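Q: Convert this sequence to structure tokens.
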Amino acid sequence: MLAGIDPHQVHEWYLAVYADAYEWVEAPNVIGMSQFADGGFLGSKPYAASGNYINKMSDHCAGCRYDVKQKTGSQACPFNPLYWDFLIRNEDKLRGNPRLGQIYRTWDRMDDQKKAAYRETAQAVLDMI
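A:
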């Protein structure tokens, strides 16, 4: 979702890779929940997170070569710039969501240089993908 990959391609990938992936279970979970591609039918907001959230909620960041505390730049956790980039790429659909109001207010308070750094770092990450 953060990388902008076609949700239906993700859905098809799960069906092809997992022998026990039944479409009636997998489609709503992938298309609706993980990709937020059903227009918000299953979830009231995208299940998206920055590196900080992932670090707080898991041990996934332990030993990672990226620095979860860095927000931009080549050593920054890729989830940090991708998170903001996702929100801005989808702003027309998401800004009005009351559950995302505080997040967009945070973006609005950022200076233009910081916003540009997020977008540039996100593009560098997407180019590597």
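Residues 1-47 form a domain with the DNA Cyclobutane Dipyrimidine Photolyase, subunit A; domain 3 fold (CATH 1.10.579.10).
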